[in-house]
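Sequence and fold:
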Amino acid sequence: MKILIFGIGGVGGYFGGKLAQTGSNVTMIARRKHLEAINKNGLEVESINGNFKVKPNLVTDELAKVPTPDLVILGVKSWQIQEVANKLKPIISTETMVLPLQNGANNVEKLLEILPKQNVLAGLCHIVSFLEKPGKIKHVSFEPRITFGEIDNSTSERIERLKTVFEKAGITNFNPENIQLEIWKKFLFIATISGLGGLTRVSIDKIRESEYLYDLLLKTAQEIKLVANAKGIPLAEGHLEKAFEIIQNQPAGTTASTQRDIMAGRPSELENFNGFIVKEAEKLGIATPVNKMIYECLLPMEKKARNS
């Protein structure tokens, strides 16, 4: 199977590295110094499960050089999906599978605006990893897992083929009965902590220590659940409780990637997290005052980051 990893950050770098390590035909799209370092020395992955280094079949920033892939794994940020999908159109075939793994609740919908339905899968991943320096990915937490499926939750031969590919690479994977629910469960957790983390600029343990801030976290999550339920996603109280168990168990100093982008003045996934909830709620006639407060307070910084 010819696999294209588009975006070699923490997600694409780790999972692409694992696939390349076990002999899959892997092409990676990287840029600038990261591209130079991988081409010169290979991709280094420092992981809590063991370190490794790989040489992909091809690393480039020119899509014209990429052979038509059987599978594209998207390792970019959610706000980059539509731009990337347009770039992919000339090189994919009717058989190519496009699997988004980024955070966000509407990545599939964004892809479907540009790509044929037959090309699009739904997915997410669980991992805490990041680009430590050009040519090196660092995996620091979570047992890495890819969750994926057909967007209509049907069973298919290609899903079974993907399971085989991931298992050969030693990647834990899960094909659930309801992929949309799994996406929203992850979204519930990450959107809850990201916006307030970016606004307060402190780690999750500091938010937990404040009764006021912790209450805002709870209200953020409750509003997300309201929107999900109104959209027909069966997020339940038990899912909210599970998300807060995870929040309670995060080690001191933990921050979310979107929070780190906001704090560093980089473009972030604000629009795809709290902004998405606010805009969907307005369409549905639902009040989401906490998400709106967080979103509106962060929006001027987001606009400044994008303009620069």
Observations:
- The radius of gyration is 19 Å.
- The mean pLDDT is 95.
- The first strand starts at residue 2 and ends at 6.
